[in-house]
Amino acid sequence: CPEGVFYACDPVIGDLPGGQYVHDDIVHAYRQRLMARATVLLPNQFELSLLTGSPVQTPTAALEAAQGLLTRYPALQIVVVKGIRMATTLHLLAVSREHVTRTQHPVIDYRVSGTGDAFSAAWLGLYLRTQNLHASLACAGEFLYRVVQRTAQQGQRELQLLPELPWLQQTVVR
Q: Using an 8 Å Cβ cutoff, are 96 and 81 in contact?
């Protein structure tokens, strides 16, 4: 990337329980070209496993995989792992060369699409504003938890983002 460009790469290649939903050539392109240029990578648990070639079943395995990516790709500064499910808890992890931060939320058993994209957008906005790895991870995680909880309570298929935006805006202002 050119000097001064912040490139956030959110690989859209699969998830659990759905598996891989792109051709292997796209996975190869991420490994060979896109991740090498990224400033931050925002994979989910499945994508991290696929991109590293290592199983990621626990937060510890996710940390090791993220650290391996930071070693392999010099331009990569941060790896944010979305949604490491452990029984009734969903773990989030952000790893840089200097810091590791984690947060977790209860699992809401309600299948809805777009949570990874919404989390990535919230995290990126928060991080660019605060430059705080932990605060951006915790607030983006709480925002998505609130959104999915509202979506489930209302029995909706589309994420109920707009009603929770005032909470996110108030959080950013603090």
A: no
